[in-house]
Amino acid sequence: MASEDFLLARVEARKKSVRKKPYVLVSYAQSLDGAIGKAEERVVLSGEASMRLTHALRASCDAVAVGIGTVLSDDPRLTVRLVHVDAQPAAVVFDSTQRLPASSHLVASARSRRVVQVVCSPGEQQAHLRTLPSGVEVLTVAGNFHAAVDALHEVCGFSSIMVEGGARLLRSALPRADDILVTVAPVVLPTAGGKTIRPAFDDERRLKHPLVVDLDGDAVIYGELGESS
Fold it and tell me: What is the C-alpha to C-alpha distance for residues 222 and 207, in angstroms, rounded to an integer?
């Protein structure tokens, strides 16, 4: 069984060794039966220890990304609060329908740290960035998640991005991700209304150099996403 510190050191080493930037880490929590939440209510699956790990990983990345569905349902802050950090990571919202509420915690924080709203528009010829009066930066890109991630590096300067959810964004992110970290909580959620992830892989994938950490009953599984088998 690996230690939490060893896992964090592995992530740091991977960030430096991955050639194609940005480094993308997909991180989420799920129940024993594979659900990442319920359709109609917010569910906290991570325990205190694994939540601290999540905050340490946030602190190690340039940006933390979620989809607009997560913002609308949970109104997250995407800040580092449980460990020390000199500067908060940027918050990235994938929001092609431009529904980011002006009253959200993320918009309120745009004056004190970077908040980037990613709009994927097929009609765009090249990525461009503009800043709204609220301080939110709008990055408009042509294409899918892969093109958006490239633009977040080339236009915004992010070299490492942690993708946390929701289900739709995770499905898009996993085929591009360098590494994955899944926290498996010792709980089974009711079948009805459970949200699950079905990654858009063309072939089977097996983790390279997997690590398993026991954090107060949560099983944290980390590894490098390998090529198709």
Answer: 8
Per-residue pLDDT, averaged over 51-68, amounts to 97
Q: How many CB atoms lie within 10 A of CB 79?
A: 19
Which residues have a Cβ under 8 Å from the Cβ of 108 and sit 6 or more positions away? none
HSE-up of residue 111 (Cα within 13 Å, Cβ side): 4
- Asked if 218 contacts 49 with a C-beta cutoff of 8 angstroms, the reply is yes
Cβ atoms 89, 58 nearer than 8 A: yes
Cα Dmax for the chain: 49
Six token digits for residue 94: 């994938």
Q: State the CB neighbour count (10 A cutoff) for residue 206.
A: 11
What average pLDDT does range 153-181 have in this prediction? 95
Q: Which two tokens stand for residue 104?
A: 């959200």
Q: Are strands 218-228 and 90-94 parallel, antiparallel or unpaired?
A: unpaired
Cβ atoms of residues 25 and 7 within 8 Å: no
Average pLDDT over residues 182-201: 78
DSSP per-residue string spanning 92-112: EEE-TT----TTSHHHHTTTT
**Alpha-carbon dihedral 197, 203, 208, 213, rounded to 10 degrees:** 20
Give mean pLDDT, residues 92-104.
Answer: 97
| Contact yes or no for 70/22 (Cβ under 8 A) | no
Tokens 């949200």: give the residue: 195
Distance CA 112, CA 88 (A): 9
